[in-house]
Structure formats: structure tokens, C-alpha cells
Amino acid sequence: MTFQKLLERYEAGMIVSSEFVPEALSKLSLRNVQAFMRLVPADALRELAAFIEGFDPKSPSLVIGNVSVPSAAQLELARRWLRAKSRPDKKRQSVTKS
């Protein structure tokens, strides 16, 4: 299933965030990280951050039921994006310091 179809199912209430997040992350790649992460709804983004935080990098990728679990590399891509997003904007800082 494509990320777009997965997102449509989530937004329609056909799946919950605990199903959406790992499956969506398993579709993440270096080519699509910016567009992908910007499309993730805010509530799922919070779940995504919690999922990443609780992930054990020593465990291999798994499949739980029909839900794919992302690789450590995919989680690291998402983690880096979340960190970059949470950094204060330098332009905004310089404006507020004036």
C-alpha cells in the first residue's frame, strides 16, 4: 500500500495511529523524507515521536500482524527530521532579540 493510500485510510478513521505510524515509517526513504513528514497529521506526528523514542535499535525490523515495523535507518531519518523541526529558526531568533 502506498503512503498516500495509508494516509487516506488513517484520515477516514479506517486505521488508528498505532497502525498508521509504523506502517507509514516503513515507507520512509531519504528521497521522500521532507514531503512525507510534512504530510503526517499532527496527532500522528506525536505518536510517531513517541514510537521513535521507544524503539530499540538492537531489535531487527519486524512485522506485527499485518503492520510493518520500520528499520532503524528509517527511524533515524524521522528522528533527524523531528530534531531539525524542533530547532528554533535563526531568523526568528534574531527578530525577537531586536
What features would you describe in this structure?
With 98 residues, the protein is mainly alpha-helical. 62% of the residues lie in helices and 4% in strands. It has 6 helices and 2 strands, in the order ααααββαα. A two-stranded antiparallel sheet has the order 1-2. α1 (3-11) packs antiparallel against α2 (17-25) and α2 (17-25) packs across α4. It is globular. Residues 90-98 have low confidence and may be disordered.
Q: Provide the structure class.
A: mainly alpha
Low-pLDDT residue intervals, each spanning 5 or more residues: 90-98
Shape: globular
| Total helical elements | 6
The string of secondary-structure elements, in order, is HHHHEEHH
Number of strands: 2
Strand order of the largest sheet: 1-2
Distance between the termini: 50 Å
Residue-averaged pLDDT: 80
Beta strand % = under 5%
Q: What is the CA-atom radius of gyration, in angstroms?
A: 15 Å
Helix content: 55-70%
Sheet with the most strands, sense and barrel status: 2 strands, antiparallel
SSE layout:
Blueprint: H1 3-11, H2 17-25, H3 33-39, H4 42-54, E1 63-64, E2 67-68, H5 72-86, H6 90-97
Antiparallel strand pairs: 1-2
Helix pairs in contact: 1-2, 2-4
Task: Characterize this entry briefly.
With 98 residues, this protein is mainly α. The chain contains 6 helices and 2 strands; from the N terminus they run ααααββαα. 62% of the residues lie in helices and 4% in strands.
